[in-house]
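R.M. (postdoc): so does anyone remember the format we settled on? I'll just put the structure tokens first.
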């Protein structure tokens, strides 16, 4: 007789921890990281608000007539909180410059910050409660993501930011509504039936991935509101027989949900992106940029390029080979390793300017892409997902083989952007949308976020009013 082992109480334990977390439980390192990532949220979302995908969401909200108090970042529009969170989460995720937790292979900030900002129009939210709610949201999302095991979750066609994001948003919203005990647990249970996000966007370069965190925020807010009204959700949604872990992964590890709970906050384990593309491409691009600079490598010197790609990301950025060598849309480019390698070698960067319509059709880009080959490497996979190392080799026409390797890509917590570099990233991204004076006001507000009496003041600065 086969016995299935259960680990009862995971959902309740996670809910109890998230609901009971206080600002005083957070170390200065965690608080500083929350502010650092908040500035990243502000800059990336302001720029992302100008994309066609973000504008389509705003247009749809305005078309159905949902006026309300909540700010849609980068615009002068306001709407109901759940719709503002949806619009802001979509904008934040639209330019592939949002933060990433490696171990869970997901983007926690695109859910946590838009949800917390919108909740300030449903309940009083000061800077300390904002930071604490965001910390709880990161922990919930990342703990679920790592327990699913990223490669397993991807293999079933799921996007972890969307699926785990519904829980993270529910955690943020529930905290800020003051939910406790079973009510908080019910909110997670309700969110579990809204956990969605398909990787099929890769097939045609569609925009649906960008919507996943926005929809997760919308779902999480409603889960918390429903729970507050007495709506019941399953209290074993994470570990149950038909629960999240068993339904969304072929080989989950439930023990990873509660491991080091309260000891290591996942905010501190979350990195940021310097390059405007999928996280699985960032390390190889770093290697190629380094080779280009160290060896004064010119595009005309390149005979061939081989890139070591993590197996978990291979089908995302390197396969099918024919499609990755022929990207058309911006989404295609964001998820094509050959394209990322080509622009790095040709232009010495992989910024928004390179991930723009038409760049993949330039003759020099198409020629360089044809010289790129991607391979997997067991040595890279051996330390995944806690670490995401990478390597790249360039063969030159004069017979040299140049190899670059990196253990921690730029932006990882172990190789982080400094505060000054983060401010520069924020400035570059927000400059097309808001004035210099407004940018300085936002930086000052974020640097003193724990002292902010009302988070709606920050939200107002992020608009074009």
């Amino acid at each position: 007789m086969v016995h299935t082992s259960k680990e009862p109480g995971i959902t309740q334990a996670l809910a109890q921890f998230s609901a009971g977390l206080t600002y005083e439980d957070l170390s200065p390192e965690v608080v500083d990281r929350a502010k650092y990532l908040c500035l990243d949220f502000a800059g990336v979302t302001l720029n992302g608000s100008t994309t066609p995908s973000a504008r389509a969401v705003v247009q749809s909200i305005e078309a159905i007539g949902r006026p309300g108090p909540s700010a849609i970042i980068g615009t002068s529009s306001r709407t109901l909180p759940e719709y503002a969170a949806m619009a802001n989460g979509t904008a934040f995720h639209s330019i592939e410059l949002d933060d990433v937790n490696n171990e869970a292979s997901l983007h926690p900030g695109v859910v946590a910050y838009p949800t917390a900002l919108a909740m300030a129009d449903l309940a009083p939210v000061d800077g300390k409660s904002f930071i604490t709610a965001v910390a709880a949201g990161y922990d919930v999302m990342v703990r679920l993501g790592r327990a699913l095991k990223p490669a397993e979750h991807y293999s079933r066609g799921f996007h972890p930011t969307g699926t785990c994001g519904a829980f993270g948003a529910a955690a943020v919203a529930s905290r800020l509504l003051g939910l406790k005990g079973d009510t908080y647990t019910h909110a997670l249970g309700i969110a579990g039936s809204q956990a969605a996000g398909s990787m099929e966007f890769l097939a045609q370069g569609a925009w649906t991935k960008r919507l996943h965190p926005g929809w997760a925020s919308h779902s999480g807010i409603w889960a918390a509101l429903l729970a507050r009204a007495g709506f019941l959700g399953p209290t074993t949604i994470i570990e149950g027989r038909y629960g999240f872990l068993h339904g969304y992964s072929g080989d989950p590890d439930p023990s990873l949900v509660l491991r080091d709970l309260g000891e290591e906050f996942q905010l501190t384990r979350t990195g940021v992106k310097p390059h405007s593309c999928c996280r699985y491409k960032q390390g190889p691009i770093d290697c190629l940029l380094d080779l280009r600079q160290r060896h004064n490598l010119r595009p005309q010197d390149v005979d061939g390029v081989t890139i070591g790609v993590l197996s978990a990301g291979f089908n995302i950025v390197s396969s099918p080979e024919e499609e990755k060598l022929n990207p058309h849309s911006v989404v295609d480019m964001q998820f094509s390793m050959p394209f990322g390698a080509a622009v790095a070698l040709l232009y010495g960067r992989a910024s928004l300017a390179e991930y723009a319509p038409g760049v993949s059709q330039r003759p020099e880009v198409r020629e360089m892409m044809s010289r790129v080959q991607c391979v997997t490497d067991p040595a890279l996979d051996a330390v995944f997902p806690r670490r995401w190392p990478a390597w790249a080799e360039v063969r030159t026409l004069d017979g040299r083989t140049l190899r670059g390797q990196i253990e921690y890509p730029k932006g990882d917590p172990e190789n982080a952007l400094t505060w000054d570099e983060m401010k520069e990233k924020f400035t570059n991204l927000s400059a097309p949308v808001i004035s210099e004076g407004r940018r300085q006001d936002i930086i000052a507000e974020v640097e003193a976020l724990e002292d902010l009496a009302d988070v709606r003041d920050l939200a107002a600065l992020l608009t074009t009013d």
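R.M.: ...and that's the designed sequence above, right after the tokens. Also worth knowing: Residues 1-8 have pLDDT under 50 and may be disordered. The radius of gyration is 21 Å.
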